[in-house]
Write a structure and sequence with these properties.
Elements: H1 3-17, H2 25-43, H3 46-61, H4 70-88, H5 91-106, H6 115-133, H7 136-151, H8 160-178, H9 181-197, H10 206-223, H11 226-242, H12 250-267, H13 271-287, H14 293-313, H15 316-332, H16 340-358, H17 361-377, H18 383-403, H19 406-422, H20 430-448, H21 451-466, H22 475-493, H23 496-512, H24 520-538, H25 541-556, H26 565-583, H27 586-602, H28 610-628, H29 631-647, H30 654-673, H31 676-691, H32 697-714, H33 717-729, H34 731-734, H35 741-749, H36 754-764, H37 768-778, H38 781-788, H39 794-799, H40 801-815, H41 821-826, H42 833-856, H43 870-875, E1 882-886, E2 893-898, E3 901-906, H44 912-921, H45 927-945, E4 959-964, E5 992-995, H46 999-1011, E6 1020-1025, H47 1037-1052, E7 1056-1058, H48 1064-1068, E8 1076-1080, E9 1083-1084, E10 1094-1095, E11 1105-1106, H49 1107-1112, E12 1122-1126, H50 1145-1152, E13 1156-1160, H51 1166-1183, H52 1187-1215, E14 1255-1259
Parallel strand pairs: 1-4, 4-5, 6-7, 6-8, 8-12, 12-13
Antiparallel strand pairs: 1-2, 2-3, 9-10, 10-11, 13-14
Helix pairs in contact: 1-2, 2-3, 3-4, 4-5, 4-6, 5-6, 6-7, 6-8, 7-8, 8-9, 8-10, 9-10, 10-11, 11-12, 12-13, 12-14, 13-14, 14-15, 15-16, 16-17, 16-18, 17-18, 18-19, 18-20, 19-20, 20-21, 21-22, 22-23, 22-24, 23-24, 24-25, 24-26, 25-26, 26-27, 26-28, 27-28, 28-29, 28-30, 29-30, 30-31, ...
Length: about 1250
């Protein structure tokens, strides 16, 4: 019998023989309870614990309530009950333990020597209760009780460290529940206090250190802050040192330290961090027994670290040792080992790296086999299986690059994509595998031409770069790769911001490269290619010169036998050829031919790029032919292109380019030898280009334009209509919503005239409805798109509010002003918010298109944002006929839309060459032009419509909407006529005229009005007079007079006339609140970019109020009524490239939300502007602010001034002193000279223009 057993037996005997009233009975019962508790702790016999509980209960029952020892006995009972709960999980025990402990604490004074311990024990009981039930109230009380225990303990108390440790445990429990970083930080702070309160030589010091290590690890997983990781590593070292040598947890602590240092190395991959990680792993391996299961894992990690150091320093011995360690690990594990798949995967990766070094395909095939075995050992759905599949995808990518096996490409994409989905967002390997998938998708795009593959590749590389910190060894390579992918997208979209960003990224990456980098020539070629593309867009000479210089530098850095030298030669020759096309310097085309010839000769036989080299060689020879007229060059060029198109796969996007180039050479051949079969073959080539579904949209559309000319030559109008209809349908792909307006304008300018030509072809082929359709689809594309973004979605909102809300959100994002290319170049690199916005724009556009498709599937919304139906087209003519005049060199027609029919009227007297001659003569408002317009256009149209005479007195004036195309958009059809006294052969004497950009625009305008009643207009008229303009010597004294006249009339109409500051801010801040905006001053038309045209306000030189600014303002919610732009050329499009789009100041104000806009087609005099405004507003004052009164008012004003001009002309003819076209004197003028001042930036001295002609109305 042990001494403890004997003591228990004696204590029992003492109690049995002690009388109930004996003063020592309670003390003896306390002693027995303590002895039973000690024996339970030593032997774990439950009966001892149960006896201790009974003894404690008896002692408490015998103790008076006011006895000083009652609290101690209550606490003893609580401890015994708590211990029994831990043994039996009986909640009644823990609940009673907590209850009696609380009673004990209530009876314990605040200065009691044992109060801190009792608080600590109650806190532990509460935590035990919480761990079983997860009741938050118990945890909260446990934390508070432990905090009180710590607060009641002096700083030098030996138990303070234990109390802090258990408080930190409770706080850690709360952290597990909430996951809040604040809770983690609080727990860490208390653990630090516990560590500091525990002496260095304390045998249990490793326990608070271990808890602190665990909490720091948790914090690091949240923050990924390297400083947190470094602190974790320091505490892990201290934990290992504080753990006794023979303690069972020491091996685990050593392993944890090695693991954390290894992870630290993965973040900052440097020679020093790798060496430190390798050293600690070798130290741990030597310290841990051979039988420890941790040893295998340490060997495995050491092998990975050695491989990583090999990747850094290229020390072959490291890779060999890594492979040997992987093989040793595999030998140490049985086929049933749960980690065997992981070790197979690791060996496969290392053999893959050896393939990279040696190029031995057997290593790669063996690597694929090992990783396939790893996958086969891992059940579906297991997390690690995704990792093995990711690595298999990487190896399949390498094998595809080596063998060209397409199955490897497709399998690799599927495998890597699945892996990335399963990979944690911040996994250290994520960037590498994002790059892998991007490379696979880029290869797929190159083979199949799916733009979605390219877009995804760009996003993947962008994500990889975002995950690659500055200073990382792979950052330069990833920046360049991202630039290369974005440059690929530019080749499809022609978006200037894509090209600017690509150049910036590639340059940034090259700047980070060491001069000794083996891939530098390739990266220089990437930058040269991007600059070459920039030259095509901007025609900046320095761009092509720098591109050629970079090509030369890349060639100088590349050995003669290098496998990439042929490609660098090809790029160099391309650059010289391009520069020759601009400068016509013979040396450039000679050098281009030499470079291309060498490239083709040095390219290995059977190389996949052989077809591409043939195409470029043929193109270069065609340029040489233009220089030398040597027909042998042309014949050789054609032979190269024919060989190329005969071998290039049908589903390859490059096929479109090849056929296009061959077609151009065949046309040159036909022009040289006149062989008709060349025309037929060329036409077949261009048809193939248009039909190449994965070809670049611009290439296909331009091929369609050329094919139309060839079809016209042989009068094959059925084929012409078929091809051009296909080409027109491609416009939406050419200018997607993701592009900025300036890029869309540029692209649309390159296909100007397509819609009119397609309509002419359709009419020649007797396809009348197709003619109308292609005009609607192919013209006013930008305006139509902007109109869609401002569409009223009231009906959609009533039936499908969620979709309407989504539509409104997306269109608002698309409608936001995109940053300019200059802003992009000034931004601070990839991480800039601009780069994020540009990328987001592509995603938003795709989401918007998908949403439109979803809406169109809904009942009643099939036509949502679709082209007008026949029913809608006819209904649009309810208020008056719509006349679409199509102008083409193939034929000219008027399409007459009336409520019950659509008719085609051939206009044989309308010829494009006549119109162009009048434009070049700059006399569009002359008597001669107006009479020509009457005979060629207006008279046959009005006669056909039945408007042969003026309306009878008291009858409503008929109203016509004109939609003009091509060069005719510059002409004043509304003023066409024989303007003589007594004659009614004039448009203004028979009908009122308004203009529209397209049928769809007119229909949408009418629909806006019908969706809901027009709001009562704001009772304000915003009036701005620019009598003097900064930077202009020309003063406009009539501007102030004009505004005063308008102000008086507006006031008589009950409108509040306001004239704020004459700067941009002053105007745009009042535009949403006004019913009328009237501007009298100068206007400016930008011939390069119509969206940059503007009205000249006080701050026009620094912050102009441009068309683009107005397009960003959606004023339709406020429904302003009239914008009267009394300035020169507000409806003028000076550059032929933009005729089909008609984006000018008038259109901008209409798109921004004004229901009606009055402006001018060219320069107008100061005096006539005053008279026209006064007479028009007088008409408004008589009729009120209704839709029909604006056109009526302008029509009345125009007729009045025309009649006044006729009177002046007759008087001038009587005295024979003034030409008939002299501008009339202002009827209200006090200054007879002010009519001579034009409202334009250039003084116009052309006296042949009739002054009342250029004023026009656009509106519903």
């Amino acid at each position: 019998m042990s001494e403890l057993d004997h003591a228990v037996q004696v204590a029992r005997e003492f109690i049995r023989t002690t009388p109930a009233d004996h003063p020592d009975l309670l003390r003896r019962m306390d002693n027995l309870g303590d002895l039973l508790g000690q024996r339970y702790e030593r032997l774990g016999v439950l009966s001892d614990l149960e006896e201790a509980v009974r003894v404690s209960r008896n002692a408490i029952d015998a103790t008076p309530h006011n006895h000083p020892d009652r609290d101690s006995r209550l606490f003893s009972l609580g401890l015994a009950l708590s211990d029994r709960f831990l043994r039996t999980d009986a909640f009644i025990d823990i609940d009673e333990a907590i209850q009696v402990s609380r009673r004990a604490l209530d009876a314990t004074s605040h200065n009691h020597h044992d109060r801190a311990r009792r608080l600590h024990i109650l806190g532990r009981m509460l935590r035990s209760r919480y761990l079983k039930t997860r009741t938050p109230e118990h945890l909260t009380e446990a934390i508070l009780t432990n905090q009180n225990a710590v607060a009641a303990t002096p700083y030098d108390h030996p138990k303070r460290g234990i109390y802090l440790f258990f408080l930190s445990l409770a706080l850690d429990d709360r952290r597990l529940d909430t996951g809040l970083l604040t809770d983690i930080n609080e727990a860490i702070k208390i653990s630090w206090d516990a560590v500091r309160a525990t002496p260095d030589d304390h045998p249990e010091r490793f326990r608070p250190l271990e808890l602190l290590r665990h909490q720091l690890y948790t914090k690091y997983t949240k923050t990924r802050d390297v400083m947190d990781l470094d602190e974790l590593i320091r505490i892990s070292r201290d934990t290992m040192k504080a753990t006794p040598d023979r303690h069972p947890d020491r091996d685990q602590h050593f392993y944890n330290l090695a693991r954390f240092i290894s992870h630290r190395c993965s973040i900052e991959v440097s020679q020093s961090t790798l060496n430190a990680a390798i050293d600690i792993h070798r130290e741990a391996i030597n310290a841990i027994p051979a039988s420890s299961p941790l040893r295998v894992e340490l060997l495995h990690t050491l092998g990975n670290l050695l491989q990583e150091r090999y990747e850094k320093a290229r020390i072959t011995e490291d890779l060999e040792n890594a492979i040997q360690l992987a093989q040793e690990v595999l030998r140490m594990t049985s086929s049933e080992d749960s980690d065997r798949a992981s070790y197979l995967n690791s060996l496969g990766i290392k053999l893959g790296a050896q393939y990279d070094a040696t190029g031995i395909l057997a290593d790669l095939n063996t690597a694929v086999g090992f990783i396939q075995d790893a996958i086969n050992l891992t059940p579906e759905g297991k997390e690690h299986r995704k990792i093995w599949e990711r690595n298999l995808g990487s190896l399949l990518c390498k094998r595809f690059e080596c063998t060209g096996a397409v199955d490897d490409l497709e399998n690799g994409i599927d495998v890597v994509r699945n892996v990335i989905v399963a990979l944690p967002k911040h996994h250290s390997d994520r960037p590498t595998h994002l790059i892998t998938l991007a490379s696979l998708l880029d290869s797929k795009f190159s083979n199949l031409g799916r733009v979605l593959d390219l877009d995804e590749a760009i996003q993947l590389v962008r994500d990889a770069v975002d995950l690659t910190p500055r200073g990382h060894g792979k950052r330069a390579e990833r920046l360049i790769l991202l630039g290369r992918e974005i440059r690929h997208r530019h080749s499809i979209t022609n978006a200037m911001h894509d090209l600017d960003e690509a150049i910036q990224l590639i340059q940034e990456g090259i700047d980070l490269l060491p001069n000794s980098d083996a891939n530098k020539p390739v990266y220089l070629d990437d930058l040269a290619y991007a600059l070459h593309k920039r030259y095509f867009r901007t025609r900046e000479q320095h761009a092509i010169d720098e591109s050629i210089r970079l090509n030369q530098e890349a060639l100088n850095l590349t050995p003669q036998n290098h496998r990439l030298r042929p490609h660098l030669l090809l790029s160099y020759g391309w650059g010289l050829r391009t520069r020759y096309s601009e400068t016509r310097v013979t040396d450039d085309i000679t050098g281009a031919c030499l470079a291309m010839t060498e490239a083709l000769q040095t390219l290995p036989q059977g190389h996949a790029d052989h077809v591409h080299f043939q195409i470029e060689m043929g193109r270069t020879l065609s340029y040489k032919y233009s220089e030398t007229d040597e027909t042998s060059d042309l014949e050789t060029a054609i032979r190269f292109l024919r060989d190329a198109v005969s071998t290039i796969p049908e589903d390859t996007p490059r096929r479109a380019h090849a056929f296009g180039y061959l077609g151009s050479l065949l046309i040159a051949s036909w022009e040289t030898w006149g062989t008709s079969t060349d025309v037929e073959e060329a036409l077949s080539c261009y048809q193939s280009v248009v039909e190449q579904r994965n070809g670049a949209p611009l290439i296909r559309i331009q091929a369609g334009i050329t094919a139309l000319e060839l079809c016209a030559h042989i009068s094959n109008w059925q084929l012409a209509s078929y091809i051009t209809e296909l080409a027109v349908c491609l416009i939406a792909n050419l200018v997607p919503r993701s592009l900025r307006n300036v890029d869309r304008q540029h692209l649309l300018g390159r296909i100007v005239g397509l819609a009119s030509g397609a309509a002419a072809a359709a009419l020649n082929a007797d396809r009348r409805l197709v003619a109308l359709e292609v005009l609607e689809v192919g013209r006013g594309v930008l305006a139509s798109s902007l109109e869609e973004l401002r569409l009223d979605i009231l009906e959609l909102g009533e039936s499908h509010p969620e979709l309407a809300s989504q539509f409104a959100r997306l269109r608002e994002q698309l409608d936001m002003q995109s940053s300019s290319a200059g802003e992009l170049r000034a931004s601070n690199g990839l991480g800039s918010s601009l780069s994020v916005r540009l990328n987001r724009r592509y995603d938003t556009a795709a989401e918007f298109n998908n949403l439109i498709t979803e809406i169109r599937r809904l009942p009643g919304f099939r036509g949502f944002l679709a082209r007008p139906t026949m029913e809608q087209t006819l209904a649009a003519a309810a208020n008056g006929p719509i006349v679409i005049v199509n102008v083409s060199k193939y034929r000219c027609d008027a399409i007459l839309v009336q409520p019950s029919t659509i008719r085609i009227l051939l206009l044989p007297l309308l010829r494009t060459e006549d119109a162009e001659d009048y434009v070049h003569a700059n006399n569009l408002g002359s008597v001669e032009v107006l009479e020509w317009l009457w005979n060629a256009v207006a008279k046959p149209v009005l006669d056909t419509l039945g408007f042969r005479h003026p309306p009878a007195h008291g009858e409503e004036w008929p109203h016509i909407w004109w939609i003009l195309t091509g060069t005719l958009t510059r002409f004043p059809v509304h003023a066409a006529g024989i303007h003589k006294r007594g004659s009614t052969d004039a448009v203004i004497d028979r009908v009122m005229s308004s203009y529209g950009s397209s049928l769809k625009a007119i229909i949408q305008g009418r629909q806006r009005r019908s969706l809901k009643p027009m709001h009562a207009p704001p009772q304000k008229a915003l009036l701005v007079a620019m009598e003097t303009t900064p930077g202009h010597q020309t003063k406009l004294p009539g501007a102030a007079r004009e505004i005063e006249l308008v102000r008086a009339i507006c006031s008589s109409m009950g409108l509040q006339a306001i004239s704020p500051g004459r700067d941009k801010h002053g105007v745009i801040s009042h535009l949403p609140d006004c019913a009328i905006f009237h501007f009298a001053g100068h206007g400016h038309t930008d011939t390069d970019d119509p969206s940059r045209s503007f009205l000249l306000l006080q701050d026009w030189e620094t912050d102009p109020l441009t068309v683009a600014t107005l397009l960003d303002m959606n004023l339709r919610m406020h429904s302003p009524f009239l914008a009267y732009l009394s300035a020169c050329g507000t409806g003028e499009v000076r550059d032929d490239r933009f005729l089909d789009e008609s984006i000018h100041l008038i259109a901008a104000y209409q798109l921004a939300g004004f229901r009606h806009v009055i402006g001018t087609l060219w320069s107008v005099s100061d005096g006539i502007s005053v008279d026209m405004a006064r007479l028009t507003y007088e008409g408004l004052s008589n009729g009120g602010l209704t839709d029909d009164v604006v056109c009526r008012g302008l029509h009345h004003a125009t007729r009045t001034l025309r009649d006044s001009w006729l009177s002046s002309a007759e008087q001038a003819a009587h005295v024979d002193t003034t030409p008939i076209s002299e501008p009339l004197v202002n009827l209200q003028s006090e200054d007879p000279q002010r009519h001579e001042l034009p409202r334009d930036v250039i003084v116009c001295d052309d006296t042949e223009q009739l002054p009342w002609v250029p004023f026009v109305h656009f509106g519903v």
